[in-house]
Amino acid sequence: EIGPPFGKGPFKCSVCSTEFVKWSQLQRHERAHAEDKPFKCSRCEASFNHELNLRLHIATHPGSGQPSCPECGKLFARLASLKAHLMLHQKEENLICAECGDEFSTQARLDRHAQEHKDELFKDKYYFCNQCPEFFCKRHLLKEHMKMHNKIKASLSHRTYKKNIDRSSFSHKCTTCKKQFQKPSQLLRHVRIHTGERPFECKICHKTFNQKGALQIHLSKHSGLRPHHCEFCSAAFSQRGNLRAHIQR
After folding, report:
1. Element (H, E) at 219
2. What predicted TM-score, i.e. pTM, was given to this entire model?
3. Could you give the residue ranges of the DSSP H alpha helices within 34-129?
4. Are 21 and 6 in contact (CB under 8 A)?
5. Full set of structural domains in the chain with CATH
6. In angstroms, rounded to a whole number, what is the distance separating the alpha carbons of residues 125 and 121?
7. Strand pairing partners for 75?
8. What is the mean pLDDT of residues 23-38?
9. Are residues 194 and 176 in contact, defined by beta-carbon separation less than 8 angstroms?
């Protein structure tokens, strides 16, 4: 729903130009227009789906002269008799759905109903992916598409490291936090976390790192190399972590 404009009223209806002091009053009024029928009486609030019914209705408003039927010209002594006669000429006001025969009082309601039929037909005709907005006209195309989802899941579940390692048998222990490691080189890298030592320096910008691998990743920013390629599109990344984040999106 559109929010109120800046400033104070009056606010004018874009359909019939009626003015309202409050924005909320105009909103309620314009929602009522959505239920309007196209042929409107200029002397009252009645509206009709058929022009003939409007002409018949206008004849029921009191006027000069003897009441007469605008369709067949018959004259009547009383307005009540004319109203009873006009029912013979009136067309059915309800609009009928060509698909199922349901009846609706306005074109707007019939249009909404017709859209439901289209949506049902669309669902029956196409095969929808339950993991993304894609849809296909043939079942085998959907199956091929689902293989891609499975491939992405498999790539995201891959881990190059182990979690919850049992370190009780490792002999190389950190003297600061007592964490144990299998190899001296692993302990050496770990100790740098405590000492703050950063022995690996970038020769281009002189930034330092505590691990050689971190320096190599950093150097790819200077070289522009993107060795980690997405297997689902043409994107490439300098770091494996960025590739994984891309696939997850």
Report:
1. helix 212-223
2. 0.30
3. 51-58, 79-86, 107-125
4. no
5. 11-65 (3.30.160.60), 68-118 (3.30.160.60), 171-248 (3.30.160.60)
6. 6
7. 68
8. 72
9. yes
